Amino acid sequence: MLAFWRHGYETTSITELTDAMGITAPSLYTAFGDKRRLFLEAVRRYAGDPAVTGQAIDDAACAYDAACAMLTGAVIAFTGVTTPKGCMLASATASGSEASLEVQAAVADIRRAVIDRLRARIERDIATGVVPPETDASALAGLVMTVMQGLSVLARDGMTRTSLQAIASAALLAWPRTQTSSQ
Predict the structure, then answer these.
(1) What is the CATH number of domain 48-172?
(2) pLDDT of 42-60, one tens digit each?
């Protein structure tokens, strides 16, 4: 996972992968079939169980709290001491070659699932009056994902955790509020 995170899907060689895993190339192929399947397994490990992520969004007191937790968690993850800077999902599939289309699609599916779950949570808040009825739930959920991906790029550029958290906080100021909302 860390090799893909550091170098990206396409530029990570089989030698780098086998060295990182302490195995031989035949063992890698026996266990995973090919580099693509190994990458998809690394993505599953990195992204975690989608059900757990979705449940955390659903269980938040409101969609704002879910978005805040997502952005704060992203800032922490993207600036880890023992991991590469930025987001593996964003950096590992940054190139757009024909060879990586399947892995790019898998990563896009993960992002779409998070956006869909957050959109549904925002829609629930609209229905209960937590956010104004004219709120565009899809656009707001997309904004959160866009900010997360932007934070990843800035983390890879070396921006500090404090600066990234300030950006996340500034982005959350765009969250729509009702007159009675306390966010």
Answers:
(1) 1.10.357.10
(2) 988 888 877 788 889 999 9
